[in-house]
Structures
1.
Amino acid sequence: MHLSILNSNKYHLFYYYKYTKLGWITIATNKDSITFLHFGKIKITNCKYILTILIEDAFKQLEEYFNGQRQIFDLLISLNVTKLKKQILNELTKIPYGKTQTYQDIAIKLGNKNYARIVGNTCKTNPILIIIPCHRVTAKNGNCNYVAGSTIKQNLLLIEKINRYQ
């Protein structure tokens, strides 16, 4: 995967929202990386509302993903998160396209099966949806909670299931 998660003290400088196949999506960036991606038409204070080249590229890659033409994102992202959350988010990026894992699976990979709740909370507060694929994580009982709603999660998983072998 060509995705690098960097620690950053920089915050959003630019943002833009656009209507996509799955509804409105808002993307924010600093000068060189994605810092936020969520569903909805979200106004971000103290940022310029402008379609930068980086945001335009991110929307292009999302459109390719929605159309089944992209399985791996090639975007630089930066987050201001704790070391443990960074480890969890990095682990999420390793879940193969079209596959799911449980919170406990991720916790075990991190070396502590008791981290399952922390993994769930990290997914719930994931600042860069889709690109950091928390939609690929489910509870052990199959529960499909998702910060953007279960319908969007099911649609993302369906896109990946349909296009997995193309």
Note: The longest strand covers residues 14-20.
2.
Amino acid sequence: MSLQNSKVADKFATFAAKMGAQIHLRSLRDAFATIMPLYILAGLAVLLNNTVFTWIFKGKTLLQVQYWGTLLSNATLNISGILIAAMIGYCLAKNRRFDNPISAALVSMSALITMMPNTVKLIPDGAKKAVDISAVLPYTNLGTGAMFAGVIVGLLATEAFVRISRIKKLQVHLGENVPPAVGKSFDVLIPTIIVLSCSAIISALLYNLSGMNLINLITTFIQEPLRHIGTGIWGVIILYSLGNLLWLFGIHQSVIYSSILEPLLIINITQNIAAYNAGKAIPNIINVSQVQTYGLMGGSGSTLCLLVATFLVGHSAVTKNVSKLSIAPGIFNINEPVIFGYPIVYNVALAIPFVLVPVMGLVISYVTTTLGWMNPCVIQVPWTTPIGFSAFLATAGDWRAVVIQLITFVLGVLVYIPFVMINDKVLKKENDNAAVAGDVQEA
């Protein structure tokens, strides 16, 4: 790498590192990571309800057993909007080094509730037309439909709350003789009143002047356009490829993937889970499970393909030893040993397949799903699920998805093979140059 290229790489790495450390993106990443187990549980509950249970039970017994899965969906997927608002409040407050992050979570969640309509249209059981019902919070407003609103309201409400809470004159001190929990509550009493009152005023003005609510506005004019652009096939390819490029500079791809792309992909999979649970058409081909299943075979860069290619054609003792040590974690999509041991970082010889193979997996899975050759992903499975199992579970038991994933894996190995050979030649040349230099110094 030339000196000029090295300087460009260093500047890019510095910029990417600063972007990854940006407090709002970091808080967003932390919040989604915190509630990820709930989404996985929701997916498993929906999978059992709509596949396994239907194989075992019938009629009234099936409905009774499925009630278990419905309760889990209600407790996870169908309240995901307020869950993400609360977690963003907590994570952002912690990252701001605010000493009472729990209160920030409560304020964030309550602020989101103030933005919800007091009257909604619902179809009663047995009826055909919707009627206006007041003083209810339907799952449609609490769940996936409110996720992006939860993100925006969570960030704004928490920022306002933390800033106002640090104004000394607005803090109510009861002295040292009161329990700490009581003292902390009164310290943020006035800021809580101010933030929630202001959010309620905004919501009331919006409703009285336009008849709309912030949830619908954010969903219609921000969430859906951004989600369609960011999670379209080209948007995912560009953003995910940029994330993988960061690995080449030693920066975790989560700087772009987890902070920018993954939240949108999670919204897509939650919509798919809800649609699959309700027996409706699946709305999103591209979602977080699809990207993980076909674009992260062995981790970022689909490096499990690289390990197999190394076993097949590799000659370097160093890379073969690294591959032997990395194959076990690689099966479970943990590839830091490959990234830093092979290495991928600053390795020009492997840059092309590291970016190209995941893109190939995304395109193949998108096209085959569009053509109806396999079902779309409707379950969020743990990212550590090995290939084969991941495709089968993510598509709710479609064996064709397993075949397509294995074909994609084989193609990935074939793409990596020539670059493994190139990398071996580079390593041999470096070793030869080092040996020559050593002989010169001895002479």
Note: Strands lie at 119-122, 131-134.
3.
Amino acid sequence: MSRTQGSLIRKAAFAGLTALCVTSTAFAQTATPATGLGQAWPNAADVSANPNYHVYVFVLNGIKYIQINDLNGTVHAAVGTANGTSVVLPVGVDSQNVAIPQSSSSGSSSSSSSSSAAQTVYSDSATTVTATPQSNGTTKFTVLDTTTCPSGCSGGGGS
């Protein structure tokens, strides 16, 4: 009987070890961290919705960081989003031109200096980021929480 028990123990140990290896391999493939927030060419996939920009997304501790670069790698802006709240990060040449309109406000008065319509550069189930080139050569980025204002809020920008 001890020979049968030993065989069962070895089979169970082998099955557990195999499951652990398969799980570790699958986890490693799906959880590869993106690095390089603030860099011209970060180690992250380009998820841009616009051919004129590179957009990179980083996730750390439940916060999603969205970075927008131009085609030359110049960092223009970055924002952090979590649970319907967004904050502008002090990163990029246009960081001072990032707007995060509140769903209840109607702050669209700054669009008077724009030279063309807003273009969507990033969109997911919770956040949309638009870019509007300004007549002074800068770009205004607008970050919209699509979970609370799916129609684009009132900050201008639509899709």
Note: Residues 21-31, 104-115, 154-159 have pLDDT under 50 and may be disordered.
4.
Amino acid sequence: MKVYHISAECYPVAKVGGLGDVVGALPKYQNRLGIDASVIMPWYDCAFVNERCFISIFTGEIKIGTQIYDYHISKERDNVLGFSLYLVKIPGLLDRKDVYGYSDESIQFIAFQHALLHWLSASQPEPILLHCHDHHSGLIPFFIDYGEEFKSLRGMPTVGTVHNGQYQGWMGWDQAVLMPAFDWAHRGLLDWNGVINPLAALIKCCWAYTTVSEGYLEELFGKANGLEALFASESQKSHGIVNGIDSEVWHPMKDALIKFAFDHTNLEGKRKNKMTFCKQHGLTYRLPLFSFIGRLVHEKGADLLPAFIEAAIKAFPDQFNMMILGSGDAETESKLIALSERFAKNVVVTIGYDESLSHRIYASSDFLLMPSRVEPCGLNQLYAMQYGTMPIVRKTGGLADTVVDISQDGYGISFENSTVSEMLEAMAQAVALYTRKNLLNQKRKLMMEQDFSWESSADKYKSLYQSLWADWEKLSKK
């Protein structure tokens, strides 16, 4: 079974969020299950690409509107990621440093999908399954079925995974002239509310779609940024499969980015990591260390952090430390920086993203705060628990699926609504728990004993693929 994962992100090549972590790990675990899984993504001017050896395997040209673009397909030579990695380079479009944020982003992703399908249709005589991640590859199932250039791929099974349904890749119908030629009679499959919606097209045209947790699948039926009716109408082909974590990258006994190794049988290394971390950042070791890691955006509840920190300082004076790592909304960033200057002994803020620092934060923190308004799966809480750091989460999506509250003999603290008052109530529980060291360590050991690895989820994907493959074989014999 040959599977291509198609994504804008893949760790460690290019990562903005959880999408990169998933696509950087799932294919590796699938290969161990006997699936021939690879990744196709855009070429980026980044350290990974510039420091590795890539072999050119195909060149071609595509027409975008009235312009002809050359494209190049290269393959990473040494299989360092545990799966084959293919990059699509288009000079002038797919040759940039950043993943997102360009004014012609819609054209970039149209070109990306056009080029990779042009290549696959010319070079793949064997059957393949295409696994499309989020809206950046959402047009592919439609193009396979109705694109004039891709008849050799017609009927190939496709899977779509929704990592975050809030982002859908909307574009005006004027962009249709930039797409590869397709059967205009089926243009309705691209449309949602009068615009081209790649995520909607993905759900309409793929053979099956998955979400990154069972809880998030249920949420999409009632809250999906305008696509609720579509998800519900296509529910017969839906599957909720919770993400896993790559335990070879995220494990306190194997992690080269932290100073002291530890596991659930001996937590001394966690104590030493915290002591070193607090000394480096001017924090008091004896106080509980709370942390937040992620994008400073509304859906993550990050806009609540400034008011929460001010209220917490008043409610728990000199009783906690806070470490924040992230970037996003400029106003939130400036408020957090100002707070870190006012309360330098207790609050440290690092704007940006630092992979190494994030590992040290997980290894050193006592509690991780996730007041998310939307969290399809969430990986941060899984990383935190792997490192014995208790998650404090709002009960939504994957957070509700993976974090069991301590009131139910679990290993986390949860609250219902993304409000400062409920966050303070949760913090009060954490501060009280911190004084009960034996109980806290029992909870740490319990969470670290949980299995959040990719093995189980990868096996569920294998079963889904096999089912689709069987359907394809039946159809191909007719």
Note: The domain at 268-448 is CATH 3.40.50.2000 (Rossmann fold).
